[in-house]
Design a protein that fits this description.
Length: 206
Amino acid sequence: MGTRCEWKKPVIMQIVRHSEQTLKTALISKNPVLVSQYEKLDAGEQRLMNEAFQPASDLFGPITLHSPSDWITSHPEAPQDFEQFFSDPYRKTPSPDKRSIYIQSIGSLGNTRIISEEYIKWLMGYCKAYFYGLRVKLLQSVPVSATKCSFRVSENTQNLQIHAGDILKFLKKKKPEDALCVVGITVIDLYPRDSWNFVSGQASDR
């Protein structure tokens, strides 16, 4: 009985690192509004923010690119520093009466209810940490049929796909009064229009 050996092309991973000066230039602002907000943070919060421009920080590690198809290499975008982000006129900002992020799960997120609940718990924890100071709330999970979305079966994967635009219309109707935004999550494939194979997500500011 013989043994067949197969040689596979090695995966070359690239690490994206930035110098301390590059990070400081991108993150440190002299904008008086931002400086005022920083000064209002307590010592622990300021220490956490300061970690952002430390190259050796455990909290903000380098980005690893696993293949040329990774988004950051296959979809190049113009760089944006924090000052540009903060000054963007289309940036949605919370207000005293709209400070809640709502999560709407659509369909089952796992093989069991326990797995689905675990995923939701992880996502809520991430949102609370990343969007510090905002409330994160969970809406009652709904089946796909409740969204009344258009759907199709992908010719490439034979998987069910639901129309992302229809999902947005459904979420708009479900948006509570105190919501900064509503985030819909599903493990079902999405497509934005008939000419597209799929889309990872879609957003609307309306």
